[in-house]
Automatic annotation (TrEMBL):
The keyword ATP-binding applies. One of its GO terms (biological process) is D-alanine transmembrane transport. This is ABC transporter ATP-binding protein. PANTHER family: AMINO ACID ABC TRANSPORTER ATP-BINDING PROTEIN, CONSERVED COMPONENT OF ABC TRANSPORTER FOR NATURAL AMINO ACIDS-RELATED. GO terms for cellular component: plasma membrane. Residues 3-250 form the ABC transporter domain. GO terms for molecular function: ATP binding; ATP hydrolysis activity; L-isoleucine transmembrane transporter activity; L-phenylalanine transmembrane transporter activity; L-valine transmembrane transporter activity. InterPro entries: AAA+_ATPase, ABC_AA/LPS_Transport, ABC_transporter-like_ATP-bd, ABC_transporter-like_CS, BCA_ABC_TP_C, P-loop_NTPase. Keywords: ATP-binding, Nucleotide-binding, Transport.
Amino acid sequence: MILSIDAISKSFGGVQALDGVTFDVSEGTIFGLIGPNGAGKTTTFNMISGMLRPDSGEVRFGGKRLDKLSPDRRAGLSIARTFQHVQLMPGETVIENVMAGAHLRGRSGMMGAVLRLPRQRREELAIRQLATEALTLVGLAKLASREAGELAYGQQRLIELARALAMQPKLLLLDEPAAGLNDAETEALGVLIRRIRETGVTILLVEHAMTLVMGVSDRIAVLDFGRKIAEGSPDEIRRDQDVIAAYLGVPDDDDA
Ligand SMILES: Nc1ncnc2c1ncn2[C@@H]1O[C@H](COP(=O)(O)OP(=O)(O)OP(=O)(O)O)[C@@H](O)[C@H]1O
């Protein structure tokens, strides 16, 4: 298992956002995390990306405890994420935005900049190359020198995705990547997400667009009121009575 979520719980004041959620993600697969509004998807996502720590439970990546690591140590791990809302530098070119992702993993620090210029030049070229490959994968290579802020919204989301890919992640966390996209763009995104998996990247997908999740995920976990109510293949999830009830808003009589 590349990622193991083991009995994580989290409350915010009086709200139990997560209550003992457990699931495992196998390497090289696409794992969908779904659930109605307020189910705890973002909270789970933020615990994997390191923005939040669980009150209890463990998050392990490649066997290492993520929930114990400082933000600095996490930065060295091969986990990249995209955001629900586009976070680009609109005045910079497309490729500069993507290179900003790769820069995070560049090894020349301040001293390197002063003492080893040639090496830094080499790194710069390598980063540019990584960024170009990422842009090619998402289909934006031709727009590399355009200003990011000038592109259409759907393309800006792809720049974000390319920036995450330029980090060469083993695990890619996608937070509602289809938000704001039209049907054709969402379909194209599905093809792209599968293509990214083919390069060996493991993907965790939090998404409301059901057709996308059902179409690309190898496995899906469903959260409702902070608990996992189902896990399985897209077909199993589609037929699951608890899942159907949760989405239809049928009152939960579990605690009878
Ligand atoms: N920082 C916070 N402070 C207080 N309550 C929070 C905080 N973050 C989340 N919550 C609450 O925790 C619960 C789970 O929220 P979360 O955002 O994880 O759900 P979600 O499944 O991502 O929902 P959505 O689909 O609407 O984004 C909700 O009741 C939410 O109001």
